[in-house]
Amino acid sequence: MFQIIKNEWRFLVRSRLLIAISIAFVSILLLSIFLGNYQTQKQEQTYQKATEHLRQQWVSIDAMNPHSAAHYGTYVFKPANLLSNLDEGVNSVTGNVLRVEGHVQNEIVHSEASQMQAVSRFGKLKSALLLQYIVPLLLIFLAFNTISSEKQSGRLKLLVLQGAKPLEIILSKTLSVWLYGVLLLIFVVVVYGILNFQNLTAEILTRTGLFFLSYALYYFIISGLTVFLSARWQNATLALTSMLGIWILWTIFLPNILMSSAEKWYPLPSRNEFQSAMTEDRSKGLDGHNPSDERGIALEEKVLKEYGVDSLSQLPINFDGMRMQADEEYGNSVWDKHYGSNRNILHQQKKSFQLGGIINPFIALQNTSMGFMASDNLHHQDFLLQVENYRRVFIKMLNDKQTFGGSKTGNWGWKIDNAFFKSVPDFEHRPTQISVVLSNYIMDVSLLILWSIVVIALIFFGTKKIKIV
Amino acid sequence: MIQTIELTKKYGDFTALDKLNLSIKEGEIFGLLGANGAGKSTAINMLLGFLNPDSGKVQINDIDATKNAKDARKIIGYIPENVNLYPYLSGVENLDYFCRLAGLKYSKTELQDFLASCGLQSEANDQKVSAYSKGMRQKVGIAIAYAKKAKVYLLDEPASGLDPLASKELSILLKKLASEGATILMASHDIFRVREVCNRIGILKSGILVKELYAKDVSANELETLYLKFMQN
C-alpha cells in the first residue's frame, strides 16, 4: 500500500500543473489566514477602544440618580473571537453592539453584513470558506480518474499481476488524495497556530483539534467516494460528473432546502410578532413609572405591611426603587418566556438541521466547523444570555441603590456619587467552554464518522465487483 | 509450462473460446494467430485469471490457474499491445515500482542490468517514460516480467505498431528469454513475425483452434496461404 501511495505522491509532486494549482491555492489560503488574523486584531482593538471609552464614560458619571443611570445605560460589544479567524460562522450577520438599559432588552445591532454589501452577499474570506468549498473540489479533480485511468491504460492489469489487490489499490489511492487535503488542513492549522502562538490556550487547541478532525473526516468521505466512483464507472468523465453533482447537491442545494424546511417545521415568530407579544405581556404587569398601577399599589400595600407603617413617606427606604425592580423582574420573566420560546425553536431547528447530516455530511461539517470555532448560533445565544444576565445584575444594583441608598420615596432629585458608579462592575465575557457545549456536536461528529464508515464499506464491498478487464 | 484443457468461455450465446487445448513447454515460443475477435485476448485473460472460464482448466507449471490465479500470476509476465507505464517516472523508476509491488527490492544497478538485458539503451534509463517510443516501453514491460523472474510470458499483439528495428529487437529478446527456459505465448495477427519468432503456431478462428503446426515446417508464404485459407472458409 505504501508503494502505491508513494507513487501517487510522486505524480503529485512531479505534475507542474498540480504544483502550480497547489501554490496558487496555498497562497490564497495564506491570504485568508492573514486576513482573518488582521480582521480579528482590528476588531479586538476596536472592541478594546470602545469598551474602554464606554467604561470611562460610566465611571466618570459625577453624581446621578441611580434610576436615571439605568436609563442612561451602557453598551456591550461582542468581543473578537480568535477562533473565528478560521470560521466566521454567523458572526458577520448577528451584530456586535448591544445597548444595556433599564426596562428593556434591546436587540444586538450593527452586523458587518448590514454595513458591507460584499459581506452580506459573499461572506468574508475565511479559511473555512476555502476548506469547505474549494478543497473538496480539488480532491474531486485529483481523484476522479485515479482508477479509471489505470483501467483504461491497462495498468490495472499490470498492477494486479504484480500482486497488488484491487482493494489495496483503491484504498491507497483514496489515502493519497485524502493526504493532500489533510496536508492543506495541517498547513492552515499550523500557520494559524504560529500567528497566534502567544494566545494559544488548551481550549483553543482542543477546539482546533476537533475542527481538524471534522475536516479530515469530511475529506476522507469526499476522497473515498470519488475514488470509489472512479473504480465503479467505466469512464472518468462519468465519475467526475457524478461527484460534481454530489458536490453541488451537498454544498448548495441540500443545506438551503434543509434549512428552509427546518424553519418551516419550527417557525420563529417575526420580529413584529415577537415585539407585540412582549409588549402585550408586559402591559399585563407592573409599570414601574406609574404609581397608580394596580400591581404597583398591591406591592405598595405589601411593603407597608412588612415595615408596619401607613404611608410611603414613613418607609425607611425608597419605594420607587423597589417598584422599579419589581417592574424589571416582571419584564425579565416576560423576556424569559418569549426569548426562551425562541431559543427552544432555534434549538429544534438546529436539531432537525443536524439530522440533515444523515443525507448530507457537508451539513455536519458546517455545524462542527462553526461550533468548534465558537462562531455558531449556539455560541452567539450564549453571549446574548450572558449580556442579559449582566443587564439584570447591573439594573438591580442601580434599583437597589435607589431603594436602599438613603433616599426617600418620591425623591427623584436624589443623586449618588461617583464612587458608586465606579463600583458597578463592567461586563465580562466568559467564552463558552467546549466541554460545556461539546454534547451539541456529538451528533455531527458521529454522522461524519458514520459517513466515513459507509464509504469504507462501499470501497470494501463495492470493489469486489470491479472488473479488471 | 502452459496447458489449457477444454478451455471455454461464453458471453451469452456467443462462444468466445471453444474447448481450447494447448500445451506449451518450457523454452518454447507458441504463436497464437488469429483475426481480431478470434479469442486470443480472451484466452490470455483467462490464463491471467482475469476471466473465469465457463468450463475447462488452465495449468501454469504446477499451478491450477483456474483455482489459484493469485499464485499463478506470481510466475507470469504479461506484455500487452501497449505497455502503458507511468509517464512521470523514468524507466528505472517504473521498473523499481512494479518490482516493489511484487515484493522485490533491487538496487539501481540491478534494475539497470535488467533493462539492459531487455535491450533498453542505458541513456534512456533515467529519462521520463513520456519520452519513450512504443518499442522502448515494450522493453521496460518485458524487463518488469524478467525482473520478476517470470517463468511464463504472455504477450498480446506485442509487435503491433513497432518499427521493423524494434520488432526485430523484440524477436531477439523473446528468443533469448526462451533459451533461458521461459515458456512464451504470443498472440498476434502478424504472420511473418510469428513465423520468425515462434517454434509452434496455432491458428484460432472464432474461438476454435483450427490448426496447429511447427514453424520450421512452413515458410512464411505457406503460413500466410494457410492462414488466409482458414480465415476465408
TrEMBL record, chain A:
Return the InterPro entries for the record: DUF3526
Q: Does the keyword Glycosyltransferase apply?
A: no
Which GO cellular component does the record give, naming just one?
Answer: plasma membrane
Q: What is this protein called?
A: DUF3526 domain-containing protein
Q: Transmembrane ranges?
A: 17-38, 128-147, 177-197, 209-231, 237-258, 353-374, 441-461
Pfam families reported for this sequence: ABC2_membrane_2 (PF12679), DUF3526 (PF12040)
Keyword RNA-binding tagged = no
A GO term for molecular function: ABC-type transporter activity
The UniProt keywords, alphabetically, are: Membrane, Transmembrane, Transmembrane helix
From TrEMBL, chain B:
Judging by the UniProt lineage, the source's domain of life is: Bacteria
In the record, what terms sit under GO molecular function?
ATP binding; ATP hydrolysis activity
Return the InterPro entries for the record. AAA+_ATPase (IPR003593), ABC_transporter-like_ATP-bd (IPR003439), ABC_transporter-like_CS (IPR017871), ABC_Transporter_VariousFunc (IPR051782), P-loop_NTPase (IPR027417)
Keywords assigned by UniProt, alphabetized:
ATP-binding, Nucleotide-binding, Transport
**A Pfam family for this UniProt protein?**
ABC_tran
Tell me where in this chain the ABC transporter domain is found: 2-231
The record ties this protein, via SMART domains, to:
AAA
Q: Know the name of this protein?
A: ABC transporter ATP-binding protein
